[in-house]
C-alpha cells in the first residue's frame, strides 16, 4: 500500500483543485491512501463530494497555509510545525507517508523540505528534476531550479540521482545521461561542465551510460534519457521552451480562425488538433521531483487544475512504487565505495 | 552607398548559396555594392547567372577556405591574411566594406574578427546578438554564444550594445532592456546578474530603459526589446527554443497526415498553414550580429539557403544604414564619461 501526503492548502486554488485531483488519481491507483493536511472547514465540503477518496483519506486540521508569494525564510519561520506544507513533508519523515505532494511555492517548499528531511549522506545540494516531453517520449532534466551554480562534483551527483530516477520512471537498465553544454566537443563549455564530464567518464558507472555533452536542441529531440545542468541554466531553458510552445500554439490558433477556409479546415481536422493538444498538454508533464533529500517531495505547478494535480500524484506514485529512494541510495553507495581511498595509514 | 563584403566560401554550401542570396538581397537594396572573397573558379559560374549582381560586385580570388569543423586556433593559423573569411573581415578594417557577412563556423569567425578588428575601447568581451521572433514582433537577445561566463560589468556592456542595436534595428528611442534570470524578484539569481541589475539601475541611462529581471518565458512573449544574458545560458536557451519549435512543427505535420479527415482539413486550411510557416520561418531571423568589435560582422547560419542568407545580408544592411557602430560608440562614451572619477591627484 502506498501512502501519499498532500498539502491541501498549497497552490493557487488549494482544496478546490487538490481534492478533485486526488480523487482522479485514486481512480487510477485504487490501492493508494492519502494523508491530507489543511483547514478542516475548507477541505471537508470538497471531500464530501468524493466519498471514495474520503474513505481512503485521513484529514488533519492545521491553521496555517503558506502563501504563494511568501519568502522561504518567512514561510519557515511562520509555518514550521504548524502549516499544511510542513506537516505534509513531516509525514514523510515520520513514516506516516511514503511521499509528499504540494502545489505550494517552490522556494518555501524546498526550504521546508531541506530543513525537515535533511540532505542524503554524500549529497551537498538538492535538485529539482522535471519530466520533459520529447520527440521520442520523455526525458528527465535536472536541476530545473533548486539552486544556482552547481560545481562539477554536484553535477556528478545530479547525474547519479537523475539516472536512478530514469530507472524508476522508464524501467530501463542503464539510462543515457548527457551534460548540457554549448557544443558537443570536449573542449567546449565552462570549467565545471568539462570537469563533470571527466568525472563521469572516469567513474565508469554501471547504473548509467554517460553519453557526453548535449546541446539545447537535444532536449526536445530526446537524445538522452537524462539531461544534467545547473539550476540557473536549467530553469531558463525550461521556461524558454515552455514559452515557445505556448507562443506557437497561439499562432496556430490565430491562423486557424483568420479565414472562412481555415475555419472549415479546422472543422475537418479537429480530431487531429485534439490529438495534438493532448500530446502537448503541459498538465501531463506536471510534477517536479525533489532529489537529494531523505524522502521524496513532489512539486506540482501552482496554477494547474485537477487533471494536472492528478498527474503530479501519478509521478509521486511511480517514484514510490519503483523504489526511487532505495535506487538513489544504492547508486550513491556504489559510487562512493569506488571512490574510497585504499585503507592505509594515509587514508585517515 | 553601402558596401558589404562576403565570405563566399563560408557555410555548408559556399557560393551555391551565398551568390544567389546576395542577388536576392540586391533586389531589395539596389544601392548596395559587394566585395566578394572566394575561389574564382568556384564563384564565377554562379556569378554569371546573376548579371546585376556581377555588375555591382568585385570578386577577389583567394585560395584558402575555412572548414566548418576547423578549430578557431587552427583557422587563424591557416587562414590569416589568405582565407576568404579573413579577407572579408579585413575589408571592413581597411574601409573597403562597411560590414562583413559570413556563414562560416562561428568559433573561427569570432576568433578572426577579434584578431583582425580588435575590441572597442572600454569593451572587454564581444557578444553575439540574435534576433528572436516574439508574440509582439522581434527582440534582441545577447550574448547567444560568443563567450562563456560574463561578469556584471560585461553584462552591463552587453546591455549598452544591445540597446544601441535595438535603436538601430527597431527605430525606438529608449528600448527596454531586461536581464535574464530565474525570477523577477531582486533577491533571485546569481551574484553577477544581481550586481548587473544594480549597475544598470544606478547608471540611469537615457539610451535605454532598464526593465529589471525577465524569465525564460519572457523571451517568447517579447516582454522587453533587449534580453541580456551571458553566452552559456543564452546559447542553451536559444537552442532549446528552436528545438521546441521544430518539435511542435513535426507533431503538427504528423497530426495533419494521420487521417483522411485531417488531410481534407489541411487542404482547406493550407493558406493558414502557409501563413503560419512564413511567420515561424527560421530563415527570417537569420543573422547574428557580432558586437563590441571595431567593425560589424554578421554571422549567417551555416546550413541556410539563399533566402536565409539574403536575410543575414538584410541585417547587415540595416546595421550600417542605421549607424550601429556610431550608436554603440556614443552610448559607451556617454556611459563612461558619467562613470569618470572626478579629476584630482587620486584619479591618476
From TrEMBL, chains A, B:
One of the GO biological process terms: phospholipid biosynthetic process
The protein's annotated pathway: Lipid metabolism; phospholipid metabolism
E.C. numbers: 2.3.1.274
Catalytic activity: a fatty acyl-[ACP] + phosphate = an acyl phosphate + holo-[ACP]
Pfam families (UniProt xref): FA_synthesis
Keywords linked to the UniProt accession: Acyltransferase, Cytoplasm, Lipid biosynthesis, Lipid metabolism, Phospholipid biosynthesis, Phospholipid metabolism, Transferase
A GO MF term: phosphate:acyl-[acyl carrier protein] acyltransferase activity
Localization per Swiss-Prot or TrEMBL: Cytoplasm
Classification via InterPro entries: FA_synthesis, Phospholipid_synth_PlsX-like
One GO cellular component, as annotated: cytoplasm
Source domain of life: Bacteria
Broad class of enzyme this protein falls into: transferase
Function of the molecule: Catalyzes the reversible formation of acyl-phosphate (acyl-PO(4)) from acyl-[acyl-carrier-protein] (acyl-ACP). This enzyme utilizes acyl-ACP as fatty acyl donor, but not acyl-CoA.
Listed NCBIfam families: plsX
Family: Belongs to the PlsX family.
Subunit annotation: Homodimer. Probably interacts with PlsY.
PANTHER family linked to this entry: FATTY ACID/PHOSPHOLIPID SYNTHESIS PROTEIN PLSX, PHOSPHATE ACYLTRANSFERASE
Protein name: Phosphate acyltransferase
Protein's organism: Allorhizobium borbori
Gene from which this protein is expressed: plsX
Amino acid at each position: 500500500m502506498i501512502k501519499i501526503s498532500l498539502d491541501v492548502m498549497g497552490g493557487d486554488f488549494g482544496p478546490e483543485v487538490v481534492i478533485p485531483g486526488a480523487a482522479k488519481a485514486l481512480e487510477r491507483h485504487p490501492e493508494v491512501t492519502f494523508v491530507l493536511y489543511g483547514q478542516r472547514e475548507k477541505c471537508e465540503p470538497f471531500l464530501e463530494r468524493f466519498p471514495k477518496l474520503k474513505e481512503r483519506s485521513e484529514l488533519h486540521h492545521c491553521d496555517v497555509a503558506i502563501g504563494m508569494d511568501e519568502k522561504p525564510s518567512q514561510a519557515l519561520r511562520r509555518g514550521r510545525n504548524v502549516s499544511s506544507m510542513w506537516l505534509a513533508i513531516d509525514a514523510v519523515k515520520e513514516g506516516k507517508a511514503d511521499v509528499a505532494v504540494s502545489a505550494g511555492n517552490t522556494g518555501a517548499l524546498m526550504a521546508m523540505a531541506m530543513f525537515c528531511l535533511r540532505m542524503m549522506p554524500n549529497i551537498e545540494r538538492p535538485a529539482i528534476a522535471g519530466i520533459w516531453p520529447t520527440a521520442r517520449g520523455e526525458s528527465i532534466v535536472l536541476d530545473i531550479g533548486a539552486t544556482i551554480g552547481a560545481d562539477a562534483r554536484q553535477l556528478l551527483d545530479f547525474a547519479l540521482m537523475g539516472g536512478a530516477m530514469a530507472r524508476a520512471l522508464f524501467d530501463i537498465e542503464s539510462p543515457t545521461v548527457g551534460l548540457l553544454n554549448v557544443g558537443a566537443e570536449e573542449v567546449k563549455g565552462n570549467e565545471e561542465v568539462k570537469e563533470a564530464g571527466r568525472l563521469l567518464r572516469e567513474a565508469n558507472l554501471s547504473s548509467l551510460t554517460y553519453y557526453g555533452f548535449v546541446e539545447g536542441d537535444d532536449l526536445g529531440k530526446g537524445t538522452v534519457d537524462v539531461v544534467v545542468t545547473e539550476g540557473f541554466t536549467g530553469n531558463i531553458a525550461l521556461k524558454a521552451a515552455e514559452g515557445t510552445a505556448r507562443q506557437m500554439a497561439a499562432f496556430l490558433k490565430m491562423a486557424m480562425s483568420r479565414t472562412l477556409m481555415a475555419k472549415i479546415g479546422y472543422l475537418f481536422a479537429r480530431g487531429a488538433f485534439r490529438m495534438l493538444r493532448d500530446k502537448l498538454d503541459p498538465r501531463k508533464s506536471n510534477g517536479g521531483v525533489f532529489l537529494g533529500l531523505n524522502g521524496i517531495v513532489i512539486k506540482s505547478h501552482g496554477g494547474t487544475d485537477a487533471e494536472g494535480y492528478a498527474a503530479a500524484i501519478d509521478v509521486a506514485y511511480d517514484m514510490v512504487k519503483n523504489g526511487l529512494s532505495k535506487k538513489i541510495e544504492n547508486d550513491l553507495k556504489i559510487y562512493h565505495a569506488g571512490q574510497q581511498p585504499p585503507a592505509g595509514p594515509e587514508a585517515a
